[in-house]
Structures are given as C-alpha cells and as structure tokens.
Amino acid sequence: MRYVEHLPAPPLRSIVRYYGFLDQPDTFDEAITHVTPPSLSKGLMFHFYRESELLTDNGVFKGNLPLGFIMTQAVKPNSWTFDKGWSILAVIFQPGMFRKIFPFSTVGLSDYFILFDDLKNKCYVDLLEQISLASDNNARIELLDNFFLSELTEVDTNDDYVDIFIKSLFKSPSNPIHELTKDIPMTDRNFRRYFLREIGLSPKKYQRLVKFSKAFHLLQTGRFNKLSDLAYSCGYYDQSTFIREFKQFLDTTPSEFLRQINPFAESIHWKDKTDEYSYGME
Fold it and tell me: CB of 84 within 8 A of CB of 103?
C-alpha cells in the first residue's frame, strides 16, 4: 500500500490543503478488512481505479465505495474490505473552507457520502471521468489544479467568526468554549447555532474531534513517552478520560489499537495534525 501527498498550486493553498493518493496494488486469497478513524478532513473523493469491490461501512453508508463523492465530517470509524487492487484520490480542504465551496448545510449529514451525480453542478462528474482516464498522477494533479483555479476563484477566503474559533481551538484545544469565543461578538447561544449551521457539528463536538485527532496522530507516530503524557498534551483531564473518549470515537482502546496491524494508518499516518494546519500562504 502506497500513500503520497501533493500540495496544490500556490494560489489554491488557502483553500485546498493537499491532494492525497492511496494505491493498494495487492491481491489477497481472502478479503481483508481494516478500519480508519474519524477525521477532521472534509473534501472530495475520486475512486478512479478498482479491480473488484471496495466495500465500506461507517454505520451510515454501507456498500461498494462510490466512484466520486463529497466527504462530509467523519465522526465514526469506517471499515474497508477488499481482496484486490484499487486506487483513490482525496482532495482535502483547509479547515472551514468546505462550507465556502459548498454553501449548503451539513447538519445531520456527518459520515454521509454526497454523490457527484446528485449535485446540480455536473462539473465534478466530468472531472471524475478525466481523472479516471488520466495517464498518471502528475496528469491528475494538473487536472485538479486547473479545475480549482477556474472554479474556486470566487471563494471568499477572509476569516469569519468560525475561522477565528477554529484557529483558537487548534492553538488551545483544551480551553473551554466560552474562552475560545471571548473575542467573538456573539452570545454563546447564537454562536453555537451559527457554528452548527456552518460546520455541521456543535463547537463542543468539533472540539472533541480536534483533541481526538491530535491524540491519534501522536499515538500513531509514537511521539509520546507515556499514555498519560499524551492525554495531558492533547487537553484531556486525565488518562482515563482520554481512553474513554478514544473508545467512543474508534470502538477500541489506545492500547488495543497499537496492537493491531493497520496498513491504512501505517501508510497515511492520518494527517489530522491539528498543530500543523496552515491558513493562507505560508
């Protein structure tokens, strides 16, 4: 299994975080299943090559992975079952940008796959066909850059209250919500409604996902000495709170996860690095 990330063209980097290519070329005697965790990432998925079915189940969608779809917020683990080769391409947007590209509410749509065929704008269906027919990944990157440079020129990249909150949250994930919103001229109740409408999750649920994602990355890359140190560094009150939250998100404990063989995580290292998100040109 091979995973590679590519940055988009410089003018797109305030909107598109990266393009991720995941190729699984092997054939197995029996179907195997692996699990991926919840994720902060929102974006587009292009399943441009497969030798047989790639079955997925996240508790909301169950079946053969669609060829092209919008990835909404993933708050549940997702299982992947396959026995032959496949390739997928993910376009991951910068935090908070999804709602500016697709200005519709995702309240109640967590873990849903919104098919390109169901969108009014059929340009994404055409893009999927072009990506599937492209000669190699360099050609696919060029297609994506050209497409987004023409389609996303009108996207407003200026910070609004949601962006201000998300930036504050990434810097201080353990702070209470009322501290993270102290510079936002809205009542707590109005901001919570506003954030839910814009992101699809409440500020508290989003904060839980940010803390989990940071902890998962540190766990996967081994950047900790003790589990309690990891828990404190990610804003959890104590180790038992971290273990309970981890199990709620991934249906397993941190120790059990570390004992599992997971080529998805080994290949990708799940780049939900909350301390490395970039905004604008850097």
Answer: no
Q: If we measure between CA atoms, which residue out of 220, 263, 83 comes closest to residue 234?
A: 220
Q: With a cut of 50, which residues of the chain have pLDDT below it?
A: 270, 272-282
pTM for the whole structure = 0.87
Q: Own/partner pairs for 179-182, CB < 8 Å, 24+ apart? A: 180/207
SS3 state of residue 264: helix
Tell how far CA 227 is from the center of its chain. Answer: 24
Contact by Cβ (8 Å): 17, 65: no
Tell me what pLDDT residue 35 has: 86
* Alpha-carbon span 232 to 215, nearest angstrom: 10
Angle at 257 between CA 216 and CA 252, to 5 degrees: 90
Phi then psi for residue 174, to 5 deg, are -90, -10
Complete domains list, the chain, with CATH: 2-151 (2.60.120), 161-268 (1.10.10.60)
Tokens of 275: 């301390």
Q: Is 207 exposed, middle or buried (0-12, 13-18, 19+ CB in 10 A)?
A: buried
